[in-house]
Design a protein that fits this description.
Number of domains: 1
Structural class: mainly alpha
CATH architecture: Orthogonal Bundle
Radius of gyration: 12 Å
Largest sheet: none
Shape: globular
CATH superfamily: Winged helix-like DNA-binding domain superfamily/Winged helix DNA-binding domain
Number of helices: 5
Helix content: 55-70%
Amino acid sequence: MDGHGDLSGNPSAETLAALLTARQLECLQLAAEGHASAEIGRRLGLSARTIDDHLAVACRRLGVRSRIQAVAIALTVGLIRPPVA
């Protein structure tokens, strides 16, 4: 699990927040708002590849396979805000 502990059970928001960098959370927030990697990259001044890397590491640290799953976890525990309609 990438040396970051076991996420079995119901980890707290604090536990999950400790696994992720501010940049990874920022990428998850923008992904939750429906932005593709290229758009997130433009907003943050990074390449789409770098965004994909940030999201891939966040997925590994959260123990999931997709950015959708990572966003769902982050939303569920309150690490990111729900998108505004």
